[in-house]
Each structure stands twice: as structure tokens, then as C-alpha cells.
Specification:
The protein has 79 residues and is an alpha+beta fold. The protein has a domain of 43 residues: 3-Layer(aba) Sandwich (YefM-like fold). The protein has three helices and three strands; from the N terminus they run βααββα. The termini are far apart.
Length: 79
């Protein structure tokens, strides 16, 4: 666990985040006037399941692109 001052945290935030993201540091404590006030921790989320999450939940019709020209015209302000 690394402890840094608020000033150093502001100055080197990118480096501190890189340390957390890479696993070099598991926790960084930020202090103000010598007293701890915040902790920076990595997010333990499994984002690998996001891709393909809805696979098999719905069927894409063969003519899904049928209305593309109409939609594009509406976005361009054409009737």
C-alpha cells in the first residue's frame, strides 16, 4: 500500500492509475495534511462476458437494412 499526498496525487494521477491498473499497487491512500482521506482501488469487474451476452436471445431479420435510406434521410432533415 502506497500513501501519497493530495498534491502528489493530483500531479501524478495518471501514473498512480497505471500502477493500480497494472497490479503494481493494490491500493493507494491519498492523504491531506498528513491524514488519510481517500483510497484508490482497482475495479474487480469481469468485463469479458459483455461481448456476446445476448447471443441467442433474439433473431436478426434478413432485411434489417431495408429502411437505412429512410432513416438517413430523416437524420438529414429530408422528408
Amino acid at each position: 500500500m502506497q500513501t501519497v499526498s493530495l498534491f502528489d496525487a493530483k500531479t501524478h494521477l495518471s501514473r498512480l492509475i497505471d500502477q493500480i491498473a497494472s497490479g503494481t499497487e493494490e491500493e493507494i491512500v491519498i492523504s491531506r495534511n498528513g491524514k488519510p482521506v481517500a483510497r484508490v482501488l482497482p475495479i474487480k469487474a469481469d468485463i469479458s462476458r459483455r461481448i456476446g451476452l445476448a447471443r441467442g436471445e433474439f433473431e436478426v431479420p434478413d432485411d434489417i437494412d431495408r429502411h437505412n435510406a429512410e432513416v438517413a434521410a430523416l437524420f438529414q432533415g429530408q422528408p
